[in-house]
Amino acid sequence: MSRRDDPRAHHYIVDHVNPGTTIRRRVTVQNVATIRRQIAIYPAAATINKDRWDVAPDRTANELSSWISVDHDRLKLPPEQEATVLVTIAVPKNASAGERYAVVWAETASPGEGTVRQVGRAGIRIYLSVGPGGEPASNFTISDLTGTRTDDGTAMLTAQVRNTGKRALDLDGKLTLTDGPDGLSAGPFKVEAPTLALDATTTIHVPIGQQLPDGPWTAHLELGSGWTRRTATGRVTFTPPGAAPPTQANNSKSILIGGLAASGLVLTLLLGYTTRQRLRARQPLLR
Fold first, then answer.
1. How far does CA 111 lie from the centroid of its chain?
2. pLDDT (tens digit, 9 = 90+) per residue, 96-118?
3. What are the beta bridge partners of residue 47?
4. Which residue in 36, 129, 260, 281 has the fewest CB atoms around it within 10 Å?
5. pLDDT per residue as tens digits for the range 72-93
6. Are 23 and 61 a contacting pair, CB within 8 Å?
7. pLDDT score of 267 more than 50
């Protein structure tokens, strides 16, 4: 199956294959440090624990990582230079059906104080489904849209998301508020949700801002993972702490989007010693 139109496949290695299949992906390793780095490239184990992606320490292996090889396990990169690494996943003919997880790491180390070394690594996740026939369906539900406020008065929308499909999910999307007081609208607000394991449920939280009126509002929440999209709409009120807000959710629907494209993908690893944090949701735009 071609995955060029799958948004997840532009960030991770995501595929479904039959036993005995070999797939290859190219990843780009970049040294964004200001000094020359020696970089180790290797696969290692990962798991999903309900709504958390967990990586194993060091080079701990699992079944999937044992199927993975790279054409360069060591790179020496000058500052701001990059190299391409070919990742090969050879699935045995006797592999059992199911989804497996791993990471391809790019790791670099530098001397610290005394005997301490500073180690930094960046990785690309691998979600590999194995089994005969077509890819298992991804699916999820959104329910219980609720408006509330935090202790500092920030309006917050919460919703329950359950993975009802046969593959793990990486969810993101947007929230839009309409039909507010005096006809106000707000958003869209970016929504980021955790990785969700098979049959797992999580609560997502969307912070909106302190200046948003209580409402009521009509909340339109749209979430997606790869080609699968779901929406939920409900009337919510962002009440002060201690009050019991009314909740309502309905009108869930799905959109499955597919397409044909070539199979090669380029993924990027960024190496450095700066920490990046995801942007929080913007303050509401009232109009």
1. 32
2. 999 999 999 998 877 555 565 66
3. 54
4. 260
5. 999 998 988 999 999 999 999 9
6. no
7. no
pLDDT at 246: 43
Q: Is 109 exposed, middle or buried (0-12, 13-18, 19+ CB in 10 A)?
A: middle
- Say yes or no to pLDDT of 257 above 80: no
The residue extents of the domains of the chain are 7-134+261-271, 140-256
Extended strands (E) in 81-200? 82-90, 98-111, 117-130, 140-149, 155-163, 169-178, 186-196
How many helices and strands, by DSSP H and E, does the chain display? 1, 18
Pairing between β-strand 217-225 and β-strand 169-178 as defined by DSSP bridges = antiparallel
Sign of the alpha-carbon dihedral angle for 110, 52, 238, 174? positive
Q: Quick check: helix, strand or coil at residue 76?
A: strand
Q: Is 47 helix (H, G, I), strand (E, B) or coil?
A: strand
* The two domains 7-134+261-271 and 140-256 share their CATH topology (first three levels equal): yes
Q: Count the alpha carbons within 13 Å of 217 in the hemisphere toward its beta carbon.
A: 28
Q: Is 188 strand, coil or helix? A: strand
Give me the CATH code for the 140-256 domain, please: 2.60.40.10
CATH topology for the 7-134+261-271 domain = Immunoglobulin-like (2.60.40)
Express as a percent the part of the chain with pLDDT over 70: 78
